[in-house]
Amino acid sequence: MKTVFFCAVLAGGAFVWAGMEMGLFNQSQETVVDDGSGAKKVVKVRPVFPRDLAPAARAEAVPQAAAFNPNAHVFPMVFLKATGTLHDWNEYLNEGWRADRVEDTQLVVVVGAQRKGLIDVTPFQQGPPVSRYKFEVEASVIEAKTGNVLGTRVFVNMPRPIKRVEAFELTAIGRPVSFSPVYSWVAAMARAGFPKDANTAPLINEVD
Predict the structure, then answer these.
(1) pLDDT at 198
(2) pLDDT tens for residues 69-121?
(3) d(Cα 125, Cα 144) in Å, to the nearest integer?
(4) Which end of the chain has fewer beta carbons closer than 10 Å to its terminal beta carbon, N or C?
(5) 50 with 86: CB under 8 angstroms?
(6) What is the rounded distance in angstroms from the CA atom of residue 40 to the CA atom of residue 29?
């Protein structure tokens, strides 16, 4: 019995040590709860994804998140709205880049609402007039663990010029900014580094 107990203690100690090395035990939060008898006790609660990343959308630190490693090949991230909830674009992230735990999240990309603006309306002698619309959206990259804003950029979709002859059924030109250019910018900056004097001019793309 003594030998079995001693081995169990050693195994347990080794597991705890390995867990601490891997970060399994230092990512939980402590909270005080009532056990039903009126007594209070402290329990460990793991951070909830993506809810507990919401402070990062306000450029606030999330201590339980992973540290940003600029030397890595992939950067687990999450796309959030300014409200702190998941953005629809998050589902487009490839495996490895799409974080699914707070503890794995290095970057939070905060995407604002799409803004649509009328540029002009061109009348035609035959057929309906054609309206040209500009769409733009602002995206910011936040270091999840510290809340530091690493970079911000405005992405603009400009409508192409009106042709002398257009399809009869065409009434509007222009479309919202898509996931692809925003993700490409974030990935490129994460790999190359986010300079303090980064170019803040809008990134413009001409679209139909």
Answers:
(1) 79
(2) 999 999 999 999 999 999 999 999 998 999 999 999 999 999 999 999 999 99
(3) 55
(4) N
(5) yes
(6) 16
Q: How far is 57 from 144, CA to CA, in rounded Å?
A: 9
pLDDT recorded at residue 42: 65
Of 114 and 22, more confident: 114
**Separation between Cα atoms, residue 208 and residue 171, nearest integer Å:** 12
Q: Give the gyration radius of the chain's Cα atoms.
A: 25
Closest alpha carbon to 176 in 153, 205, 202: 205
> How much of the chain is in helix, strand and coil states, percent to nearest 5?
25, 30, 45
β-partners of residue 131 are 121, 172
Q: At 24, is the secondary structure helix, strand, or coil?
A: coil
Both tokens assigned to 104: 């794995």
What are 202's two structure tokens? 């809008």
Q: Is 59 left (phi over 0), alpha (psi -120 to 50) or beta?
A: left
Amino acid present at 137: V
Indicate the pTM of the whole model. Answer: 0.79
Q: Are 33 and 41 in contact (CB under 8 A)?
A: yes
* Residue 70 phi, psi (nearest 5): -65, -10
CA neighbours closer than 13 Å in the CB half-sphere of residue 67: 4
Phi-psi region of 78 (alpha: psi -120 to 50; beta: other; left: phi over 0): beta
Q: What are phi and psi of 150, to 5 degrees?
A: -85, -30
